[in-house]
Specification:
7 strands; two-stranded antiparallel sheet; single chain
Length: 338
């Protein structure tokens, strides 16, 4: 039986969720702009309801630690010749206390994911008002966690000896423009983890806020545009979800096994409480209909359909290769739209 304090605590604090979203979006936008494909992983992505569960409920799930420690991102090179599991960590500054905290968290994760990388971001660089991405972002390679707590070095030395972003993600150094882009992006970290930066006082664009070709890097009306990040990530997620379910809808009539699997999954949710009860009940009502009605619902554009697609009973109905193709097509189409 959970105590009163525990029953009132949530498994994942809203502040931590916001911080993670912002820093992951900064890194994802930068890498995608350089040609990498980025897919969000993490327990919050695979099981979105966990963000809303109380701590006691979360513990009752008894999720395996390997799943709870899943890195944040899967990053794949344009040529599909390299793949990186990436954990993104943000701290206000890199000092003894934060270094120790990072070491403990990353050590735990690497017990299960030893080949993962950690991208570390800070808001207060050692160089006052740092102008370059290496001032704010460094990479901790696999098997090198002890760099964080090397007592023979001061925190600044440890930071400066960790690889720079473009030392690991080579496409970033393919042109001076991409590195200038990275330097521009890292300004967002000065005030992370809030969105105040995008609503701050009007200012002139700094001289480095342009690429080597001289084109502006989305400096709009005296402040950096959110459109700089290539696309709205919430919109992108919605478009990918609709595209995925459109393919499912087109196959329901000819492939009844897809619907049978979804119905069995929802029956399991209702029986063992593995999903939020409200979502499970709503899916049960939708799937009780005939295939044409279900297919029509899957591609509806309204709040109810959007919400259910986030915890889809059709997850896994398409193979990885087909999902990648959908993700690429949606990303390319969305990035061309205003």
């Amino acid at each position: 039986m959970a105590s009163g304090a525990e029953s009132g605590a949530v498994a994942i604090e809203f502040r931590d969720t916001v911080k993670a979203r912002i820093t992951q979006s900064v890194l994802s936008a930068l890498l995608e702009r350089c040609g990498y494909r980025v897919t969000r992983l993490g327990i919050e992505e695979l099981f979105g309801e966990v963000k809303f569960k109380e701590l006691a409920q979360y513990r009752e799930l008894k999720l395996p630690e390997q799943l709870r420690c899943l890195p944040d991102l899967l990053v794949v090179s344009r040529e599909e010749s390299q793949a990186f599991l990436v954990e993104v960590k943000f701290r206000r500054r890199f000092d003894e206390r934060s270094a120790r905290s990072l070491f403990e968290k990353i050590k735990r994760q690497r017990r299960h994911w030893p080949e993962s990388y950690a991208v570390l971001m800070i808001a207060e660089p050692f160089v006052p008002r740092g102008r370059f991405h290496q001032d704010y972002i460094r990479v901790l390679p696999p098997h090198e966690s002890r760099r964080l707590v090397d007592a023979s070095l001061a925190p600044r030395q440890r930071w400066e000896r960790m690889p720079r972003l473009h030392g690991v993600f080579k496409a970033l150094s393919a042109s001076g423009g991409n590195q200038a882009l990275a330097d521009f992006v890292t300004l967002a970290l000065e005030r992370s983890p809030t969105v105040e930066y995008f609503a701050g006082p009007i200012r002139a664009p700094p001289p480095w806020a342009s690429s080597t070709r001289g084109d502006s890097l989305a400096w709009c009306g005296g402040r950096p545009c959110a459109s700089f990040f290539a696309m709205d990530r919430h919109r992108l997620a919605e478009e990918r979800s609709v595209a995925y379910h459109s393919v499912i809808a087109s196959r329901l009539a000819d492939q009844p096994a897809i619907l049978d699997t979804a119905r069995r999954r929802v029956s399991g949710w209702l029986a063992d409480g593995a999903a939020a009860p409200a979502a499970a009940a709503r899916w049960a009502a939708v799937l009780a209909g005939e295939p044409p009605a279900i297919a029509a619902f899957l591609i509806e554009r309204n709040e109810f359909a959007d919400e259910l697609r986030q915890s889809s009973s059709f997850a896994g109905a398409l193979g990885p290769r087909e999902r990648w193709q959908i993700w690429r097509e949606v990303r390319d189409r969305t990035s061309r739209q205003p």
